[in-house]
Amino acid sequence: MSKEQTYVVTGMSCDGCVGPVVKDAIQQADGEASVLVNLESGRVTLQCPLSEEAERFAAEDAGFNFCGRAA
After folding, report:
1. C-alpha to C-alpha distance for 57 and 35, rounded to whole angstroms
2. What is the rounded radius of gyration, in angstroms, for the C-alpha atoms of the chain?
3. Can you tell me whether residue 45 is helix, strand or coil?
4. Which of 19, 42, 47, 58 could share a disulfide with 4, CB 3.0–4.6 Å?
5. Fold for domain 3-69?
């Protein structure tokens, strides 16, 4: 079942990080994932069935710091 969660991810500094790196990393783990990135706030909103652990691995594997769920 798909869920929507928002996480804080640090280390994103330009639009080049948003598309080819962050979105692709998540979508490689789940091709059906919907990924919205807000570069200014450092928040990534995902709608996908992946566990938080899988999402963390995908972001960190791409070279970013996964800080957990946004408040």
Report:
1. 15
2. 11
3. strand
4. 47
5. Alpha-Beta Plaits (3.30.70)
18: how many CB neighbours lie within 10 A of its CB?
Answer: 17
For the chain, give percent helix, strand, coil, nearest 5. Answer: 35, 35, 30
Helix (H, G, I), strand (E, B) or coil at 14: coil
pTM assigned to the model? 0.79
Angle at 31 between CA 27 and CA 37, to 5 degrees: 35
pLDDT for the residue numbered 37: 87
Place of tokens 């709608």: 47
Q: Give per-residue pLDDT as tens, 14-59.
A: 877 777 777 888 888 888 888 888 888 989 898 888 788 888 888 8
Which DSSP state fits 56?
H
According to DSSP H, which parts of the chain are helical? 15-17, 24-29, 52-61
